[in-house]
Amino acid sequence: MNTLPDYIQNRQSRGLAQRVTQNLGTSSPPYLSILGGKFTLVDAGGNEQPLITFEGDPSKVMRGQAAGPYADVVIIDVNDHVSRIFYDVDFDPNAQSYQPPACFSHNGVGPSKLSAKPQSPTCAACPNAVWGSATSNVSGKGIPACAQYQFVSVLLAGHDMPFLFRIPPNSLKNYRAYAEQFRGQKFDMESVFTRLSFISQGTLAFIPSGWPAPEMLALSDKLFAAKATDAMIGRLDIPIQGALPSPNAAAALPQTGPAPFVPAVAAAPATLPAAPLTATAGPAAANPAPSGRGRRRNTAAVQPEPQQMNAPFMEQPAPAAPAQAAPASFGMSTGVPPNPEVSNMLDNLFGPA
Q1: How are beta strands 147-156 and 83-86 bridged, if at all?
Q2: 3-state secondary structure the chain
Q3: CB contact burial 138-162 (16+ within 10 A = b; e otherwise)
Q4: Closest to 74 (Cα-Cα) out of 200, 203, 224, 185
Q5: Predicted confidence band at 23 (pLDDT cuts at 50, 70, 90)?
Q6: β-strand partners of 41
Q7: pLDDT of residue 272
Q8: pLDDT digits over 125-165, tens only?
Q9: Which of 4-8, 38-42, 170-174, 327-331 has the lowest average pLDDT?
Q10: Measured between alpha carbons, how far is 85 from 99 in angstroms, rounded to an integer?
Q11: How far apart, in whole angstroms, are the C-alpha atoms of residue 220 and residue 161?
């Protein structure tokens, strides 16, 4: 099987594999999970590795960051649209598997062409997007049945592949406030470590925590330039076309909160470096901040191809027992705590988080 026979090499491909992945999607991309109030890395094979980084300084609470687990990430890319996800079944945290969402969209227009049960011709006209179309199990207040998420791709120190991270609805306000701190700066958020921590269940805090190593930023630039994160964050999502269920049929579906969900992603280019990176926020990595505000790509000019679309993939529920160590094949290491001097410098630039 190492040598491709001439008679096979000369056969014209029917594109069967491509058509299968168009209909059913590829495997899940690596992603950063916050299920169970902890940070867990999950690779494309479903192997898990909990992050053991923990912040115990109570003074962090005064700066908007709760003491507890945290993850230091470099944000590579962000979808230009807020993603919408609607489930027509109750979320069961004890379930061993999940059904895909009934309807979802990453395109900012309407249901994805991969939605199983599109609810409306457009998201703007969807009854499930209205506040009060569902009731929060936590607060008892009215919320939209179709929840909003921000899909971003991130790098972690010691890893040479991007991870998908879904910013949940309760954290969008904090994320927006964090992004506002970079307005007028000489660098953008992709040039710093962003520390993620829990304020409460499903609500995250975001603060700058240090400078990444040059090698880590170089990998981030290479992934971005290669568009390796486009499918991961939903940039290639295409609105559905054709007949849709009637609004009455959509309104009759049970209104429930969202379960964890991530889309699939195409494999990263083979030319990317295979050796793990080791980034640090210590003195060795305390390089001067980049003079520019980071790279910008005109995503409006990208013409997505339908065959590049991937189907949704469900995040697995948190295990009932304590998390076990990941297989050796996962090849991951933990993040590095930030340098207090660098953190103070960033605080002086941005003001308290």
Answers
A1: antiparallel
A2: CCCCCHHHHCCCCCCHHHHHHHHHCCCCCCEEECHHHCCEEECCCCCEEECCCEECCHHHHHHCCCCEEEEEEEEEEECCCCEEEECCCCCCCCCCCCCCCCEEECCCCCCECCCCCCCCCCCCCCHHHCCCCEECCCCCCEECCCEEEEEEEEEECCCCCCEEEEECHHHHHHHHHHHHCCCCCCCCHHHCEEEEEEEECCEEEEEEEECCCHHHHHHHHHHHHCCCCCCCCCCCCCECCCCCCCHHHHHCCCCCCCCCCEECCCCCCCCCCCCCCCCCCCHHHCCCCCCCCCCCCCHHHCCCCHHHCCCEECCCCCCCCCCCCCCHHHCCCCCCCCCHHHHHHHHHHHCCC
A3: eeeeebbbbbbbbbbbbbbbbbbbb
A4: 224
A5: low
A6: 32, 49
A7: 35
A8: 999 999 989 988 777 889 999 999 999 999 999 899 999 99
A9: 327-331
A10: 13
A11: 9
Rounded to an integer, what distance in angstroms lies between the CA atom of residue 35 and that of residue 25?
23
- Pairing state of beta strands 31-33 and 193-200? unpaired
**Exposed/middle/buried for 179, CB within 10 Å: 0-12, 13-18, 19+?**
middle
Distance CA 98, CA 225 (A): 34
CB 322 within 8 A of CB 38: no
Q: What distance in Å separates the CA atoms of residue 219 and residue 154, rounded to the nearest whole number?
A: 11
C-alpha 308/C-alpha 231 separation (Å) is 8
Claim: this prediction has a pTM higher than 0.85: no
pLDDT value of position 241? 73
End-to-end CA distance of the chain: 57
**Residue 289 predicted with pLDDT over 50:** no
Q: How confident is the model at residue 54 (pLDDT cuts 50, 70, 90)?
A: confident
pLDDT at site 208: 93
Distance between CA atoms of residues 18 and 307, nearest Å? 7
> For residue 18, what are its two tokens?
């491509």
* pLDDT tens digits along 210-226: 999 999 999 999 999 99
Instruction: Evaluate whether 170 touches 258 at the Cβ level (below 8 Å).
Output: no
